[in-house]
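A quick aside before the break. I want you to see a complete sequence-to-structure record at least once, exactly as it would be stored in a machine-readable document. Don't worry about memorizing anything.
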Amino acid sequence: MKHYSVSPSRLNDTAADSIVGRNSEVAALESHLLILEDQYATLRRIGADQVKLASIRLQMARTLAGLGRGSEAWGLGREAFGAFIAVEDFESAADCCDVLFRAEQPESLSALGQGIWLAVTYPIDVELSIELLSHVIDETPDNADGAAVAATTALFLADLRAEGTQRENLTFFTARLLGDVARRHSGVADQQAFDAWLDRLELREPDRFLVRLRNVVDVLVQDNWWFDRAALQDRLP
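That is the input. The structure line, written in tokens, reads:
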């Protein structure tokens, strides 16, 4: 048997490259944060409206989360979320939920659940919707059904909302995602087993798997809703 080895100097070079890359990323994020803080101060000084201020807060929160400063990101993202909900900008509110989840704070799972509710209830950006659902897949144990429900919903939204090349790319991506979930959930390895798995978990009909997604959302959010979900549902067409 042939044996392969990596020299210590090569390992050191790789580690050094990784450190340099991360340092450059941090420097870029910190520089971007300073620019955003200046913009925010200017907007406040001239009395800009709350939506413009919320947009900058969201960008600042995303940058802080990227820097690992989750507690600082949380306050800004939470304020921005409230401002966007007030004007019914549900796509931006869902984007806030994505950032709040990445901030890794005690209520981050609640934020994720509320973002998913908004993403499924309203026709917001499909890539953001899939990103939110992907977090459920990443956070769910292999043997739990939540990942299967989230992946199925992601494929459903890609097919429903996307068009043209984007639709082709996203349906391919989400179909592979669903296949990966089936393998890790039940060891599914062929089409016959996959079809049986879909039937067993009731993943073929939206009326069934969307109800199950609602249960996933309720588990994530508990009773910690930041908006009146019933009132929004009553106004749906």
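Two observations worth writing down. Confidence is low (pLDDT under 50) at residues 1-6. Residues 113-225 form one domain. We'll return to this after the break.
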